[in-house]
UniProtKB/TrEMBL annotation:
Residues 1-29, 107-143, 263-308 are annotated as: Disordered. Coiled coil: none annotated. This is Uncharacterized protein. Residues 17-29, 125-134, 279-292, 299-308 have a biased composition (Basic and acidic residues). The lineage of its organism: Bacteria, Bacillati, Actinomycetota, Actinomycetes, Micromonosporales. Residues 7-16 have a biased composition (Polar residues).
Amino acid sequence: MAGRSPNPVSQTLSGEDNSRRAVERRLPGRARPAHDVLREYNEFNAKRRQRIPSILWIFVAPDPDGCYRWRVQLDCDCVTEVLTGGDDPPPSDHHWLDPVHQQRLPTGQLSCKHDDSPPAPYRQITERSDRREVSFPADPIEPPDWTDADTWAVVRRDKPHSKAFWTVALACGHVTEVPTDLTWKPTDGPRRVGPERQRKMTTEFEAFWATQPDGQSKQEQEHTRRMLADGWPMPRPEQLCYRCPDARLIVAYQRVGWLVPRKTLSTPPKQPSRAALQRRLERTQAEADRLRQQLAQLDTDKHANAAG
Ligand SMILES: [Zn+2]
Ligand SMILES: [Zn+2]
């Protein structure tokens, strides 16, 4: 989606705040042709159903006739279309998936990439939840593009190794993963360097910034200063948030309608009146009497024949 204005990082609001803030109104432009949207949904659904057991389709890959179309306007001014399961609640009340990072965004946010989006900001880690271990092979002998041979000789890992990856929530409401040593636990808290090492590191960084003013961006320099002042805590208490630059709030929405147009429902049969039910009962009783008489007549004839 193309940008129209300078793009600050979306202001982060809680879901309640955003659902109150988003308004239903007519949006500029027009909805996409219905048959295009339906075809794309069916193609997308056929693909995802290949890897989802059919018993779960109703929850995660539903038929198109339960999908409702909306046009939404984001706080970057872009207008796009979304589908929800059912026509309520509105899209500003949903947790949408960030398609790049495959993580749920806070309520009412959608990802919208702009060429002039700001760089990822640092955010405080507010919570750690899931942990998984990832094994890595030994690093290649040749240095990668981002470093020289001397540095690589120092940092290169010559044996396979493993890291723990923690799912963390950031102060902005976004979720990401950060690596730690396998042995580290949240109850350990961050490890810090001693006062002497802290002073030495600070002196070295001050010298680096003095001789190479462009050696670090302003944001990186501020992060480094916070780390130095705090005794270089590891794992770091703050993390770059790569969701923030593209996360936009839904500020308005417009109903488009069901993905599969609903047929006019036939009027349900009317409840019969008491008098009508009484008449039906009398007719049924009369019919039952007639059948009983017929049966009795058959029995009488049978006995008469047997006797004869
Ligand atoms: Zn946008
Ligand atoms: Zn964020």
